[in-house]
Amino acid sequence: MKRQGKPGRRRYLRRRLHRLLDGLLSIAVLLGASAVLMAALAPWEEAAPPEPVRPDSLTIYARNPAPAEPTAPAEPEPPREPVSRDSWSLILVNRWNPLPEDYSLQTVELQNGLQVDERCLCDLQAMLDACRAEGLSPVVCSAYRSRERQEELFSSRVDRLMAQGYSREEAEEETGKLTAFPGTSEHQTGLAVDIVDLNNQLLDESQEDTAVQRWLMAHSWEYGFILRYPSGKSEITGILYEPWHYRYVGRVDAERIHTLNICLEEYLSGTF
Ligand SMILES: [Zn+2]
Questions:
Q1: For 141, phi and psi rounded to 5 degrees?
Q2: CATH number of 78-97+111-145+188-272
Q3: Where are the domains of the chain?
Q4: Which single residue of 6, 14, 140, 254 could bond 221 by disulfide (Cβ 3.0 to 4.6 Å)?
């Protein structure tokens, strides 16, 4: 039996070392190849982590859209607060809405003997005082009219036109453009006043150029009054433009109507 010498043992150890290194190298190559293969086959694992979602970011809706809700049909925007048609100050009187037969009111007398509904006196007085404080001269030339007075007024105008050759039907039609049929005049409510300028007391469109009308058109709403028959609204109001007829509706509603630039019929219909 031959005993292995030192050089033989060294060769033996070197061979073992080479084998060990070869083995380790093979494992490293295999691991590297596996990593490359995994990277090629599973690129999503390399994706960047999701960014933190900012609540105020619009992009989150694009990235994570919420499930679509059923679309409601478009509706007109309702008024901020519902208009109370039951309010005494919003009573609608026109050719299609006659005053109830049993309508009653408490009137008070103005200095010139005309009467108004007592509930609007305070604001009317405040409006006239403010107008006069500007050096102007407003004159209330018409206010509350009883049903009988309205009948007299209407029939006298019809008679005058018939005397000019109009038929009764034509005369009533023509008179109705400026004077309401009995029962359909706002003056019967005691909440309407005709105001003219002392320097021009004609009830025609020239009123709109007077200093008093310019002031009233700009400020009447501050006292609860609206220009009731504005230009361009005759089809809706049934009355031609009257730059002298003011109607009390109360300060809150007057401001809204003025701001919306609409007439009372439009305001009460709620379609603005
Ligand atoms: Zn009037």
A1: -105, -10
A2: 3.30.1380.10
A3: 78-97+111-145+188-272, 147-184
A4: 254
> Taking the chain (272 residues) in consecutive chunks of 10 residues, what is each chunk's mean pLDDT?
56 69 61 50 45 38 47 58 79 94 94 97 98 98 94 95 96 87 94 98 95 98 98 93 97 97 95 74
Is 265 designated active site?
no
- C-beta of residue 140 within 8 angstroms of C-beta of residue 195: yes
Of the listed 118, 169, 205, 242, which one is catalytic? 242
- Does the pTM of the predicted model rise above 0.70? no
With beta carbons less than 8 A apart as the criterion, state whether 267 and 83 touch: yes
| Gap from CA of 46 to ligand 1 centroid (Å) | 83
The CA 244 to ligand 1 mean position distance, Å, reads 7
Measured CA distances, 111 to 24, 36, 114, 139, 196 (Å): 119, 105, 7, 11, 16
Tokens of 140: 């209330």
Q: How many degrees, rounded to 5, is the angle at CA 238 between CA 122 and CA 128?
A: 20
Q: Enumerate the H helices of the chain as residue ranges.
A: 6-41, 59-63, 121-133, 147-163, 168-175, 211-219, 234-237, 251-260, 264-269
Tell me, in angstroms, the distance from the centre of ligand 1 to residue 57's CA: 59
